[in-house]
Specification:
about 425 residues; alpha+beta; Dna Ligase, domain 1; globular
Length: about 425
């Protein structure tokens, strides 16, 4: 595994993105390249709905990426998980180790796996997307840092933040990788990947507390974090795609609506330039040209932004005095005036999330854009994961038949129930 580049996949609402990198040391990456596939609609509100389409797009994105970075194939990847329906909860596992025992990485990993298995067994409709340690208690003494092998304890408590959702959320992602014959090296929830991208090297922000607002195509996610713990999370099933559809309802083609939003759209009327209009072909009347005022366009955007942000800011408001910073990221965060628009509605400092500090000077500036933040965070987490989990990539035949055996054992064969994509 150490000889392979780090590769991460983000199953976004509008595309499958893949990025490859090389770790140059602690918290430093060189980005080799990125590619995406937008061939099919395969998700709804951030969740995979068609595993065959998802598998095809994963395979296509990785093949394009392999061509870009000049390798024959990419056999494995980390994946970013998330979507509408994801929840978080603080949990703890307390173990009596009988006698003083070295707290090794192997012991902590075994306890984590057993805890996940116990949770999913007791709640059959739930899957644990990720289990992030927040702090530890060794024989009554609390510590934030992960124990080292030279520490011993008889009574061990591990306090976690659990990210969980319906069982199908993770199962369909797993099925998609299996159908694509790609080894899923590990998975990370989007919230943790973004926090890693923005918080690495900024321990004071961790302690003061921060929130991350991730504006995707079909979902918008808020995560609030302080002192190594998640305080709250909110996923709204509205995103940038819904803003585009609102603009389309003005009688504009979808392609023009997306271009207008990205190039000339402003978050609200008073931030948009006055007296400026744009000529756009009408889709309702042939040969008719619409003259759209940019402030009227901003009104449409403002109305949909309010639908997105109102439930988000209701969750943020009780924590405004406990945190210092709100980072905004995702493709939707590139809307002009958005930072000021949100700042007017909250008392915390609003900043664009930036992961540029994690990239070496030779990485292309393109990869500093916010739509790559979750991938960069996942690659950083992947580098740490690979150090802690020495393993080989299984051959494709073993992967496939192991998956079929598992599906028979669990009595679920949804793997074969969906239509295959047509070329």
């Amino acid at each position: 595994m150490a000889d392979l580049p780090l590769v991460a996949i983000d199953l976004g609402s509008d595309s499958v993105r893949a990025m490859a990198a090389v770790s140059l040391g602690p918290d430093t990456l060189h980005i080799l390249g990125a590619e995406k596939s937008t061939r099919y609609a395969y998700t709804e509100k951030g969740n995979v709905t068609n595993t065959h389409f998802a598998a095809y797009m994963i395979k296509e994105a990785l093949q394009l990426l392999a061509n870009r970075i000049h390798v024959e194939e990419i056999p494995s990847a980390f994946v970013v998980l998330g979507g509408y329906g994801m929840k978080i909860q603080a949990l703890q596992d307390k173990r009596d180790l009988i006698r003083a025992h070295a707290i090794t990485p192997e012991l902590l990993e075994r306890i984590k796996r057993e805890f996940i298995r116990a949770m999913e067994t007791s709640h059959p409709t739930v899957c644990v997307l990720d289990l992030v340690p927040t702090y530890y208690v060794l024989d009554g003494k609390e510590q934030d840092e992960c124990p080292t092998p030279d520490q011993v304890a008889t009574i061990l408590e591990v306090h976690y933040t659990a990210f969980f959702g319906h069982k199908d959320m993770k199962q369909k992602v797993n099925d998609s990788f299996i159908l694509a014959s790609i080894f899923q090296e590990g998975s990370f929830v989007r919230s943790d990947a973004l926090l890693s991208a923005f918080g690495t090297g900024q321990s004071e922000i961790y302690q003061q507390g921060c929130a991350v607002l991730d504006m995707g195509a079909q979902t918008t996610t808020l995560s609030i974090y302080k002192g190594n713990q998640y305080l709250a999370s909110k996923v709204v099933p509205i995103g940038g795609w819904h803003i585009t559809r609102s603009i389309e309802h003005l009688g504009i083609g979808l392609q023009y609506a997306e271009a207008l939003k990205c190039q000339l759209g402003w978050a609200c009327r008073d931030l948009a330039p006055t007296g400026k209009k744009v000529r756009i072909p009408s889709v309702q009347e042939k040969d008719k040209i619409l003259h759209l005022d940019l402030q009227d366009l901003a009104d449409v955007i403002d109305q949909k932004l309010n639908d997105i942000l109102t439930p988000i800011l209701e969750v943020l408001q009780p924590y405004e005095q406990r945190i210092s910073t709100l980072f905004i990221t995702g493709g939707g965060s590139m809307l002009q005036g958005l930072e000021e628009y949100i700042q007017r509605r909250t008392r915390v400092d609003v900043l664009p999330g930036s992961h540029a500090i994690l990239l070496d000077a030779s990485s292309d500036d393109e990869y500093c854009k916010p739509q790559y933040a979750s991938l960069v965070g996942a690659l950083l987490l992947g580098a740490d994961y690979r150090k802690a989990h020495k393993q080989e990539v299984p051959d494709k035949k073993t992967m496939f038949f192991d998956s079929i055996r598992e599906r028979f054992e669990t009595g679920t064969l949804a793997l074969f129930t969906e239509n295959t994509p047509k070329k």
